[in-house]
Write a structure and sequence with these properties.
This protein is of the alpha/beta class. It folds into four domains: 173 residues, Molybdenum Cofactor Biosythetic Enzyme, Chain A; 42 residues, no CATH class; 83 residues, Molybdopterin biosynthesis moea protein, domain 3 (Molybdopterin biosynthesis moeA protein, domain 3), CATH 2.170.190; 72 residues, MoeA, C-terminal, domain IV (Beta-clip, Beta Barrel). Helix content is 21%, strand content 28%. A hairpin with a 2-residue loop joins β8 and β9. It is elongated, with a radius of gyration of 30 Å. The structure holds ligand LQZAQKY5 and molybdate ion. Molybdate ion binds next to loops. The site of molybdate ion has 8 residues, from loops.
């Protein structure tokens, strides 16, 4: 079997996602305007420019006294306190030669250019006395020091996290335009699978991949339909694929994509659509399949078949399904961040395939490696907090620099 490089496969997968988006009827790709409280995890459909500056008026960064720096004489007799401004109040212009008592976030009186924090002010007979002349402009938050009116604060394609939504809120926006959620159907194949809670009769194993996919998809904020376990037969697999294609953008399966006679997924996809690529030069995850399933109306749903070994499922989801989902959701930049890191382990035999080794950051700033890297050993994925992206044939000695991808960047 000839294996495709991951980079080539990603080009094809993303081209497939882009081509799919072109086939979606215009009416189904209209951004929805959602309230901020529903925007978390959604992908922004347009750039957002702020209609106001933040802050919109000069205000104080400290509890203290607002004044004109030029009025202060170090060790002098002190200045009268002419007004008190709390946050939310509107001050009057500052009487020359006086100070205003002011609190954090309160608007600066016209004529004041500086705030002195209260710890640096002595009150003597009701006058504010200073031991030093403050630097003009100190502790003043200028108009627009966070956001200038008209500037772009959020970009089309941004995935909206808590900070994005808070930034929009700070400019008074109460709704944001987002793309529709991607619709994903999943099923597991394998007559050996039973669900947790059921008795484990001889020959069976528990279905862990179902929960893996559920969790991974929940983290990506898609509309997920879990079609359960499908028996190992060509007809049953074809029937579920047909059904799923009708109202989903992407179908993801686990298991049944290798070369055994009981691996019905690829033949079923070929019968109901087409396979565009199969088998990658990566370990784990070699037998990944990508293609499409025909719909009755002539359009297609995308298909990705993940290998059944649980670690292979997780790694191929992270490396291949996630970028496709993010692209379908409206994001341009879908590559995870690789961090150059120090290996505190040795890996004496590189593989012909590019390897993704389960590793964990240690307190010394290096990486430790899980002792068992078999693709059936799910324990490795809980122990690890990311993967080392190890090129084909590469051995690793302690102290070598390797490329690390954190699960936090890869699984959500
Ligand atoms: N002769 C060859 N055999 C295999 C090859 C090969 O190139 N030649 N490739 C191996 C590699 S690499 C992988 S990865 C697996 C992938 O096989 P499949 O995708 O067809 O998956 P299955 O055979 O159905 O299952 C593999 C393994 O994973 C377990 N499994 C499956 N589904 C689940 C699930 N939902 N939850 C938990 N565990 C699951 C299954 O019991 C098997 O142990 O093929 C190799 N074979
Ligand atoms: O590619 Mo398989 O996923 O190595 O075990």
């Amino acid at each position: 079997m000839s294996l495709m490089s991951l980079d080539d496969a990603l080009v094809r997968l993303l081209a497939g996602a882009d081509a799919y988006l072109q086939t979606v009827p215009h009416a189904a790709r209209v951004p929805a305007s959602v309230p901020l409280s529903d925007a978390l995890g959604r992908v922004l459909a347009t750039d957002i420019a702020s209609s106001m500056s933040v802050p919109s008026v000069e205000n104080s960064a400290m509890d203290g006294y607002a004044l004109r720096a030029a009025d202060v004489v170090a060790g002098g007799p002190g200045l009268a306190i002419s007004q008190r401004v709390a946050a939310g109040q509107v001050p009057t212009p500052l009487t020359p030669g006086t100070v205003a008592r002011i609190f954090t976030g309160a608007q600066l009186p016209e004529g004041a250019d500086t705030v002195v924090m209260q710890e640096d002010v002595r009150l003597v007979d009701g006058l504010a006395c200073f031991d030093a002349v403050p630097q003009a402009g100190a502790h003043v938050r200028g108009i627009g020091c966070d956001i200038m009116e008209g500037s772009v604060i959020l970009k089309a394609g941004d995935r909206l996290g808590p900070a994005h939504i808070a930034l929009a809120a700070s400019t008074g926006l109460d709704r944001l335009p987002v793309w529709p959620r991607v619709r994903v159907a999943t099923f597991s194949t394998g007559d050996e699978l039973v669900m947790p809670g059921e008795p484990l009769v001889p020959g069976k194993i528990y279905n862990s991949n179902r929960f893996l996919l559920r969790g991974l998809l929940a983290g990506l904020d898609v509309l997920h339909t879990d079609l359960g376990i499908v028996e190992d037969s060509l007809d049953a697999t074809r029937e579920v694929l047909r059904r799923a294609a009708a109202d989903h953008d992407l179908i993801v399966t686990t298991g049944g994509v290798s070369v055994g006679e009981e691996d019905h997924v690829r033949p079923a996809v070929e019968a109901e659509g087409r396979i565009d690529l199969w088998a990658l030069a990566i370990k784990p995850g070699k037998p990944l399949a990508f293609g499409a399933i025909r719909r009755e109306d002539g359009a297609e749903a995308l298909f990705i078949g993940l290998p059944g070994n649980p670690v292979s499922s997780l790694i191929t989801f992270a490396l291949c399904v996630r970028p496709v989902l993010l692209r379908l959701a409206g994001m341009a930049d879908v590559a995870p961040v690789r961090i150059a890191s120090r290996a505190d382990f040795s890996w004496p035999r590189g593989d012909r395939r590019r390897e993704f080794l389960r590793a964990r950051r240690n307190a010394q700033g290096g990486l430790d490696l899980f002792s068992n890297q078999l693709s059936a050993v799910l324990t490795s994925t809980v122990w690890a907090d990311g993967i080392v992206d190890n090129p084909s044939g590469q051995t690793i000695a302690p102290g070598d620099t390797v490329q690390f991808i954190a699960f936090s960047d890869l699984l959500s």
